Amino acid sequence: MELHIKLPAFLIQANTEPRTLIEPEARMDYVLELMRINMATEGGPFAAAVFERDSGLLIAAGANRVVPSRCSAAHAEMLALSLAQAKLGHHDLGADGLPACELVTSAEPCVMCLGAVIWSGVRSLVCAARSSDVGAIGFDEGPRPENWINELEARGITVTTDLLRDAACTLLHDYIAHNGVIYNARRKVRK
């Protein structure tokens, strides 16, 4: 048995064309453009990319493909990290001999993606929208620790939040305005 997640054409192209983006804002602009395209191709409203932190070279790009792939693990961060690991030939993106890697993502990580960030070996994380922004449109981000940033930084992962947050939030609201699917497996009613 094998697991395959079919990538749409725009992600195949993103993962084969060389691209270097030096400035953090340019990296996030690129991720938000992937988010826009993904929303137009029946994907969820999230995208992410792994870059060489210091040079800005794009290693791998991902977008949320949960609904089209029928796989709850097909989050943007999970795909970007997995594709980067496959490209670099190592499960640890922080292994000796590899450049320091940075994950740039359209929103703060959910509980699943937070675990993946910790175990992936990336040295930095850059986020646009906050989890509260994602929750406001109906997604359940899971029981992420309140001090998640401190937890990452204690593991040597620097965290930047709110980079181009307004632009990411506009896209989240566009997703809802165009009847995007909110695909929580179970909605827990909070008292």
Protein architecture, described:
With 191 residues, the chain is an alpha/beta fold. The chain has helices at 9-14, 24-40, 66-69, 76-88, 111-120, 131-136, 148-154, 165-177, and strands at residues 47-52, 58-63, 101-107, 124-129, 158-160. Strands 2-1-3-4-5 form a five-stranded mixed sheet, sandwiched between helices. A hairpin with a 5-residue loop joins β1 (47-52) and β2.
Task: Spell out the helices and strands N to C.
Answer: HHEEHHEHEHHEH
Classify the beta-strand content into a percent band: 5-15%
User: Considering DSSP H and I runs of 4 or more, what fraction of the residues is helical?
Assistant: 25-40%
Which structural class should the secondary elements be placed in? Answer: alpha/beta
Gyration radius, to the nearest Å?
15 Å
Largest sheet: 5 strands, mixed
Which strand order do you get reading across the main beta sheet?
2-1-3-4-5
Distance between the termini: 42 Å
| Poorly predicted ranges | none
Number of helices: 8
Roughly what is the average pLDDT, rounded to an integer? 94
Number of strands: 5
State the shape. globular
Which descriptors apply to this entry?
single chain, 5 strands, 191 residues, globular, 40% helix, alpha/beta
